Amino acid sequence: MEELACVFCQIAAGATSADIVYQDSTCFAFLDTRPLFPGHVLLCPRDHVVTLCELPAELIQPIFSMTQILAKAVESALDAEGTFVAINNRVSQTVPHLHIHVVPRRRRDGLKGFFWPRHKYIDDSARQAVSDAIAREVRKLVGS
Question: 40-52: per-residue pLDDT in tens?
Fold first, then answer.
């Protein structure tokens, strides 16, 4: 069973310790053990869900409402100027259990935008082709 090997499922079950900052029947949040900055929090659904795309529809609202609350709490608790909120899906996801990073930020804290190189479109037609392809897939997924 994947859940038995998942460290985040072990934290949810109380079998592995963590610095829990919030928990309810839907989700739990704890301090990252390898934080970008002190106060870096991870929010996870209790159920073993690997990616955002697999998150059941009924969990979207409670998970993202708690993300919003955690962002406010981290800013207030640490007198931060803002937060960085991020999700990795598979690539760079060191634990294969959906988790949302909430990281306190301050101007000139050393984080510079995204952590990977930027790649421009070759030209306007390449940009338009990508835009059209994504829009086409969105239409398929929303049924219009």
Answer: 999 999 999 999 9
